[in-house]
Amino acid sequence: MIVDPLPLRRLTEPPDATVALPGSKSLTNRALLCAGLAAGRSELTGVLFSDDTEAMLAALEQMGAALQVDRDACTVSIEGLGGVLPAESLNIDARQSGTTGRFLAPLIAVAPNGGVLDGHQQLRDRPMSDQVEALRSLGAHLVSGEGHLPLRSDGGGVRGGGVQVNGATSSQFVSGLLLCGPLFDEGVDLEVMGSLVSRPYLDMTIAVMEAFGVPVEHDDQRRFGCPHGVYASQHHAIEPDASAASYFFGLAAMTRGRIRVEGLGQGSIQGDMAFLGVLEAMGAVVRQGDDWTEVVGRDLRGVDVDLADFSDTAPTLAAVAAVADSPTRVRGIGFVRGKESDRIGGVITELGRLGVDATEHDDGFTIYPGRVRPEVVRTYADHRMAMAFSLLGVVSDGVAIADPGCVAKTFPGFWGVLESVRAGAE
Ligand SMILES: O=C(O)C1=C[C@@H](OP(=O)(O)O)[C@@H](O)[C@H](O)C1
Ligand SMILES: C=C(OP(=O)(O)O)C(=O)O
């Protein structure tokens, strides 16, 4: 049991550490779904086991995919469904997982006898309407769930083909339609309307679909499509999670320390690696090999950045920016109000509680660095609020994190890894 609130202790020396991080949530849930739908047996390595990926694993099991899971070895072996969904009506609990919810909504729509897709209240509160509208225009019989979960479908076939989807709220709507596109009679041909947030996640979707043998046609910004077909089983290795790595890169930057993350290097396909460019612009030194990345901290200055492509790092940047020597303006992330918590409002409120000035904008925030005072940080059941604000507890005295267990959504071992970095510095 972790104590709640969890008191943190200021580091007395800059850390000098190498950390091994768990697999990417985004890549794990994409690979699990493709492997679960594929013809034949797939072997996945580097798999993340966390609440979000357990939700996807449970859904695949319910659909009849045969799974062998080794949580210590971080592997999953799956005998896929060969593109044939079960005749029974499905009952899927996506828990708090946006990827599970948005990747499987098209699946309950296309399953022969449909089913119910529901989740934790936190996920019920998050937007779904753009995807529901797109599914209806593709022929889905969705009998409830206007803008939110729960969603109920009679099943009975999704024609597929051409469809317009709003891209300004979540890229997961597009990813879900693409990932399930091979199940639709005519495949899918998506046109994204409006701005497209979190664009690099679509590249991750395309990369995983293509690794499992389904070609994706796309232009750079607007059109994404795939034919009707069946995924092919694969041996597939999952990279460590770049969003999880942002906390350790940020920590090195804030402490004049050095932290290396193994397994994430120049060739990474994760968009959140762009956070390294922000740290560099702030003054940190970034070094990279094929299979590792390290950050070395220096004096930090504020920056003016657009995080629309990699917004999961916005709370991390808020923490780093609080100890820089000039203000930081973050733009392009109005849509993060619809994540696990309102990540603009929450960042402003909690920095204020710690005595750091920050102002809210429609599209983000400005942080004015200042002295951090002892306080318990509220985390709004949001793993990223907990992990990001823990960084301030490592560089100042008397900070504690409420509901530290919420990190289990994507990184159950977070506090242990943070402690190992501390242990190396003392
Ligand atoms: O497709 C994915 O794996 C994700 C896409 C992003 O969400 P949005 O597209 O909703 O911004 C990101 O914030 C989330 O953590 C994971
Ligand atoms: C937004 C997130 O998760 P998801 O949308 O996958 O629930 C996240 O992990 O920060």
UniProtKB/TrEMBL annotation:
Its EC number is 2.5.1.19. The keyword Transferase applies. Gene3D superfamilies: Enolpyruvate transferase domain (3.65.10.10). It is an enzyme of class 2 (transferase). Pathway: Metabolic intermediate biosynthesis; chorismate biosynthesis; chorismate from D-erythrose 4-phosphate and phosphoenolpyruvate: step 6/7. PANTHER family: AROM/DEHYDROQUINATE SYNTHASE (PTHR21090), PENTAFUNCTIONAL AROM POLYPEPTIDE (PTHR21090:SF5). Belongs to the EPSP synthase family. PROSITE patterns: EPSP_SYNTHASE_2. This is 3-phosphoshikimate 1-carboxyvinyltransferase. GO terms for biological process: amino acid biosynthetic process; aromatic amino acid family biosynthetic process; chorismate biosynthetic process. NCBIfam families: aroA. 3-phosphoshikimate binds at residues 25-26, 30, 170-172, 198, 312, 339. Phosphoenolpyruvate binds at residues 25, 98, 126, 172, 343, 384, 409. Catalyzes the transfer of the enolpyruvyl moiety of phosphoenolpyruvate (PEP) to the 5-hydroxyl of shikimate-3-phosphate (S3P) to produce enolpyruvyl shikimate-3-phosphate and inorganic phosphate. It catalyses: 3-phosphoshikimate + phosphoenolpyruvate = 5-O-(1-carboxyvinyl)-3-phosphoshikimate + phosphate. It comes from the Bacteria. The keyword Nucleus does not apply. It comes from Candidatus Neomicrothrix parvicella RN1. One of its GO terms (molecular function) is 3-phosphoshikimate 1-carboxyvinyltransferase activity. Residues 16-418 form the Enolpyruvate transferase domain.
